[in-house]
Amino acid sequence: MPRFSIRRTLAVGNLRAFLRLEVGVGQDASAPSCGGAENLADGLQKARRTSQKRAKRIRALKAELAELGAARAGDARLLDYLLSDAFDRRAPWVTGIQVAGKTYGRGSRHASPRLGEFFRAFPESSRGRVLEPGSLEGAMTVELAKRAREVVGLEARPESVERAEFLKGLFGARNAAFHLTNLEEDDLSSYGAFDAVFCCGLLYHLPNPRAFVERLAAVSPNLYLDTQYARPEWDLSRREGLWGWVRREDAADPQSGVSGTAFWPTLDELQRLLSESGYGHIETLSLLPDNRHGPRVHLAARRRP
Prior knowledge:
The chain is 37% helix and 23% strand. By secondary structure, the protein is α/β, with parallel strands linked by helices.
């Protein structure tokens, strides 16, 4: 219960005004002062009764909050069980998905600057139509869908598309669509035109990068490309008129290509490929020559009008 102390230097009228403001009781300020000590005692008593009511209400609210907290803890445990079961039934996952502060699927999730780079490079993609070839399990797709009007994800493996559809439902990404596609051969124009292409971690899994980039240029004027490249000192060969390095692929690995080999152009050849495919403005957003999986680059390319 609050304690009220009276200082001898404080006028009775001022204290009565304080009680009225703090507790809502006491005489009106315009009323004449009479029986100051009696009125002060009466005000203090009313203040105590009001404080007792408040204390009782506070105890009741604390009890309700404790019950609500227990219910929420129970709901959190149930949610964790259901999510763990849903992710386990679709395992093994390549990506880690964070829900309610916990990561499901893969054991860890690493922050990536790619989404920020993409939307800064192509602001028209916000509320626009975005193509994501190589969407894998849809983790990036549902993030793109938070800002884009529509996102189309293309993937070569049925199990990855199934996981992507699960994430779409889990996060309510109704503006995302996933299609099973042979990215090495299929005509991408059947999916329509796009404001921008978000192509991350795919090109270096393909055997014929030139043919693929040319198909991307045919459906969108803007390309965000995150890929690995070959160093000039490596054992290079020539393919599709480009100098690069042939890498073996394991089709059984969900993060690998579906063909036996992939072709990595050198960085200079990669930029030449983009230029010859119609991209007049090419900007290097991130250059990661010491990436542990191989030299990597993030590029933003705009097609000539």
